[in-house]
Amino acid sequence: MKQKIVVKVQMNCDKCRTKAMEIAAVKEGVISVAIEGAEKDRVVVTGDGVDSASLTHCLRKKLGYATLVSVEEVKPKPKPDQKPNPDPEPAPKTCCQSQSVFIASMGYADEPNCSIM
């Protein structure tokens, strides 16, 4: 079950934000970590089987103030209906006929009176 966890953390500087993201990123099952909110004071963790209480406890221990705001299940986005691609039209079949040419000798070349040769 994929879930989204939002934790409000006291982060006054970029160093605190980086530390919060590092703490969240090493937790088991975390897929992504982001900072959100108007004051950039919320750590949003998306993952599979992440322990939200443990995450909040670790953030509180390292940064001083952390409150679990919400935990919600992330439902997969439905894929837009795709029409199956029809098979491409087959290339027109070319006719491969073999033609045989027969050359027959009529015996005229042997005659001395032949005007062609």
UniProtKB/TrEMBL annotation:
MF terms in GO: metal ion binding
Comp. bias intervals (Basic and acidic residues): 73-86
Disordered, as annotated region: 73-94
Superkingdom per UniProt: Eukaryota
Limits of the HMA domain: 2-71
Protein name: HMA domain-containing protein
Species name: Vitis rotundifolia (Muscadine grape)
